[in-house]
């Protein structure tokens, strides 16, 4: 059982945080994470339902986030991503962090931070061109996050990512293909304006001779033609 939650705005040092994490973890949690493909080589076994509230307690601090990231410990790195200051995460810093990516879970939360930091346009092409599996995944995780959360961006910006999705739809690696599929689906569910072009690409991929592209396309078509999805988009448009 996790220790009692620390008080609000607790002035925890990194050693304090690591001690709290170690006391809060469990071997059962580590085993469960491993079953979901999470890298637990350096992990205490603390779930995100505990980490996120703890991160809110800690508050944002860029210097502390840098120090937490350097530990290489799963939970410390997640806390670094939850508590960093987006305005202080430069593109160069994001690229440095990408060199350490070794788990889809870390990638997906880092993608959120990079989008919040304003690097969608600059980093997506760079990450997509990178041959490393987890780095390439980052590009499409960023597109997926941005499609949902950047509500004030022009729809054309996300439609403009569809050729990139098509380009990498034949990458068979598990963590890439799932992210490419995720990005396509999220663009299509953004609104009716994005839905048509995304569905057209999904149908094109579904008819591909390439096994990976066909899987990505068929799965996206299934969701983008789902009655509830379509009704939600129509209601949202009104």
Describe this structure in words.
There is one protein chain. By secondary structure, the protein is mainly α. The protein is 69% helix and 0% strand. The chain is built from 15 helices and no strands. The chain has helices at 14-24, 27-35, 48-58, 62-70, 74-83, 91-98, 104-116, 120-129, 133-149, 155-159, 162-167, 174-188, 192-206, 211-224, 227-237.
Percent range of helical residues: 55-70%
- Element order, helices and strands? HHHHHHHHHHHHHHH
Q: Tell me the Rg in angstroms.
A: 19 Å
Assess the beta-strand content as a share of residues.
Answer: under 5%
Short description, anyone?
The protein is mainly alpha-helical and 238 residues long.
Give the helices and strands, then pairings.
Elements: H1 14-24, H2 27-35, H3 48-58, H4 62-70, H5 74-83, H6 91-98, H7 104-116, H8 120-129, H9 133-149, H10 155-159, H11 162-167, H12 174-188, H13 192-206, H14 211-224, H15 227-237
What key attributes describe this structure?
mainly alpha, single chain, 15 helices, 238 residues, 69% helix, globular
